[in-house]
Structure formats: C-alpha cells, structure tokens
Amino acid sequence: MKIKVTKDLVKSVCFMAVLVLLLFAALVHRPKEFSAAENRYLAQMPAFSVKALLDGSFMKDYETYITDQYPGRDSFIALKTAAELARGRQDGNGVYFGEHSFLLGEYAPEMFEGEAFEERVSYLTEFAGLYAEKFGPEHLQMILVPDAAAILTDLMPANANVADELAIIDWMTEQIDTAAGADVAVNAGDILTEHRNESIYYRTDHHWTTFGAWYAYDLWKTRTEGASWIEEKEAAADRDTEIKPAIDSSAIARALGYDAQMATPAFSGTFDSKVGLRGRTDKIYAWHDPVIDQATMTWDGKETLYDSIYFEEALAGKDKYAYFFGGNHGITDIDCSRGHGEVSGADAAGEAYQGKTLLVIKDSYAHSFVPFVLRDYERVIMLDLRYFNKSLSKYIEENEVTDLLVLYSLADFAEDANLKKIVH
Hints:
16 helices; globular
C-alpha cells in the first residue's frame, strides 16, 4: 500500500516524533532535588499506592513532579515568556512586567481573603496580646511590609489585578494594636510610599533592597526610641545642596557611621527565574560598621561558627540574596557583642545594648533589615517558623529573650502555614 505524503502527514509525524523524544528524555532524565534558578526544592517522584491512585492524589502529585522535572524546563519557561511578551501580554507565571524593566508580584486580592488568612491574622493578634502582657508592649514590635506591587503602582500595567496591601496592613495594624493594648504594629507602607522613587525594591526579585530595609529600620527606631535617624543623619551630613539625602544612600551610610559597599552587580532574583528572562540584574549593597563586621553567627545549634553575617560563598551561586546570613535557617544565632565601642554615636546612651537579646520571627525580608539592629543588642536570634519545631515559649525563656520582633512581607505572611507555631 502506497502512503501519500501530505503536509498534514508530515506535521503529524513531526509532532509525534517530538512527543516521543520528550517522553524518552523525561524517562532518562535524572530528577533534580533543588532548582538554583528558582531557589526552591523541586517535587520528587511520589510513592505509589492503590489508595493514592484511587483518591486521585497520586496523579496530582505525579503531574507536579513531571512539571518540575521536565528536561529543559527553564528553556521552555523562557520561550513561553518571550511568546507572551510578543503577544502583548503584561504578565506571566505570577509576575507582572512593569515599566523600567521591573518585575512585580501578581498578588491578587484572593490571597488575603478567606478563612486561612483570617486565621493567620488571629495568630498574630493572640501573640501580640500574650507577649505584650508578659514583656510589656515596649519590648514587642511587629513590622508588616507591603510588596513592591503595592508601592510602585505607577510601574504596574493598566488594570493589574493586585490587592490593596496598604489597606490590608492598616486593618491588621488595628487588630494587633487592639489585642496588645498599645501601638506595637509598625506599618512600613507609609515610609516606603514616601520614598517610592528611590531604589527600595529589586527589579528582578520580590525582596526590598538594603536601602528599603534601612528606611523601615529608621521607622522602627523612631517607634522604639522616639527619634528618627533620618533627622540625625541630615544634620551629620551637613550638606548645603538641594540633593535629597535619601537619594544618596552612600552619603546616608557615611553620616551614620556605616560604609555602604556593593556586594555584587549581578543579582537575578526569584521573579526573573519565574519568567525565564535573562539580562536583567540588580546590585546588592551591604552596609558595614564595626559591630556588623565583627558579628559572628551559628545556624540551628551547630558547632560551626561563621565570622561574618555576610556569606561570601553565596555570591558565586544563583541565590545571591543568601549573601545575607547564608539564606534561610530555622535558627540563626548572632553574637553582636563585639565592635560596639568602635561605633561613633551608636552607643551615645552608654552600653545600653548589653544584656539585651532580640528574637526576630521572620521571613527573608528580615535578612537585609537585621544587620542594622545589631547596634542595639548584644545578641540577635532569627527564627524561621518553616524550620523551627520547638516550643517557642520555652525557647524564649531558655534564651533569656528581652525583646521580640515579628517581621513579614504581607505576601509571605499570607502563604505561611507555619504561623500557628507562634502560639501553639
């Protein structure tokens, strides 16, 4: 029998050949445990059981596994993004393509609605009431941080479907303060909005920059000590020009006794990885002073002592944000007792930092914030609830914690199923 070769037949054969090749590649492909590009662990082959097959969970998990482990996945993501941009799409894979090469999170209102979100807010309010009573409200603070999409609204595509995070944080602040019986919730939205034309968020990543974190720190200092360092640094800088001090981060750093140094010019963050774009990079800056530079840290109770909070090894990898404290760990214990006497102006009130231990319950936004608080304490402990499985109240007592800080970006807070650990 003679087969007539037609265009449709050629297309069908080519299509089937591609499918066979992809299937073969998937079968011989060795699954990866971790994606450096996306900075997350990948789904692994699910265990088979008749029960899992019948209730549908096996096929659901297997689909996730195939999606995560497909050969050439990063290239397919980049191709898909390029095609969507060519079609005029303004978003892809949970990311909006903003003005000036900004990538911004697609955080829809539904993220902050429903029973799960309200339950997480209730954990914060319960925690606020409990520890405001135990410690006194002056030793408890909570910083709620809006994401870039809520602040850099002028960069967002028209008709972008994002939540009003500033209004949500206002509501949460009221709930927390009512539970604590005092003003303990710090809304970082106002100060970030005021400085939205400065480099306070990365273009390729979901985090704020070191500069954005410093503004929140200044707000925190104002709340805890009643004086803004912005006012102090304006006087210290002694400038008679029209340049806004806030624009020149190096000048701010110098006026406060810091040295701002660029750690890397080649940071491509999580949003960049999600859409597979290449060529966009951010600069990571770290601020230095004698306290920061002489601080040491340990992770999760292990014996290894690191002589810096800045983890230089991370700059050689994809997740360069792990330069701060070496990334996410259940417990990051920082000894900041050294160097205080060498910081001009930091200890103007005497050795007030001595005997003070700050416990920070946090997401990764805290990593570029915490270096600033080292001037104010003898010891700082960061807890990531995802990896912390001890009794929190017992841990606080055993480590003689004197002050508490909860710091979360709103999007991370909305998705953190571990928040119940702060009260249970």
